[in-house]
Amino acid sequence: MYKLPKEEEIRRAIFNAIKKEKGFNSLKDFRNKILNELKKIDENYKISTGRARNMIARSGFVKISTKNKKSDKKILKCPVCGGALEKIKNLSLLGEKIVVGYRCKICRYKAGKGEMPYRYEFHFTK
After folding, report:
1. DSSP for 1-29?
2. Which of 56, 94, 108, 120 makes the best surface tag, with the fewest CB within 10 Å?
3. Any bridge partners for residue 67, and if so which?
4. Are 109 and 66 in contact (CB under 8 A)?
5. CA distance 12 to 96
6. CA neighbor of 65 nearest in space, from 74, 56, 73
7. How far is Cα 2 from Cα 9, in angstroms, rounded to an integer?
8. Could you give the CA distance from residue 9 to residue 16 in angstroms, rounded to a whole number?
9. How confident is the model at residue 103 (pLDDT cuts 50, 70, 90)?
10. What is the sign of the dihedral through the CA atoms of 25, 31, 35 and 38?
């Protein structure tokens, strides 16, 4: 039977994993390192990739950079942390305000209109 770790245990596991490696080039590798750190506490702990990404984004000591690709999907919330997105507007030559991209206030994710992340990179900031 699996168990879900508490947020503080996940934060500690994130800190220990990123401190040892200094950076990760994929979310899958980072999640596996976090899971290894959690298994040192309790062998039955599990964490999903989505929850790991969300906790990493909200940790404050990990910088996340994304590589984006064009997509037809409509973005309603931040694809990194799940927070609200703020529209980035610009004036056109005709004087109209147009949306050119989106920005997240929580994790600082930034993308142009019609872009979605396909690769995450993580770096230790402190």
Report:
1. --BPPPHHHHHHHHHHHHHHHSEES-HHH
2. 94
3. 119
4. yes
5. 48
6. 56
7. 15
8. 11
9. very high
10. positive
Cα separation, 112 vs 126, whole angstroms: 28
Question: Residue 30 above 90 pLDDT?
Answer: yes
Q: Are strands 110-112 and 23-24 parallel, antiparallel or unpaired?
A: unpaired
For tokens 């969300």, what's the residue?
A: 54
Placement of tokens 């703020």 in the chain: 86
% of the chain exceeding 70 in pLDDT? 99
**pLDDT digit string (tens) for 36-93?**
999 999 999 999 999 999 999 988 889 999 999 999 888 889 999 889 999 999 999 9
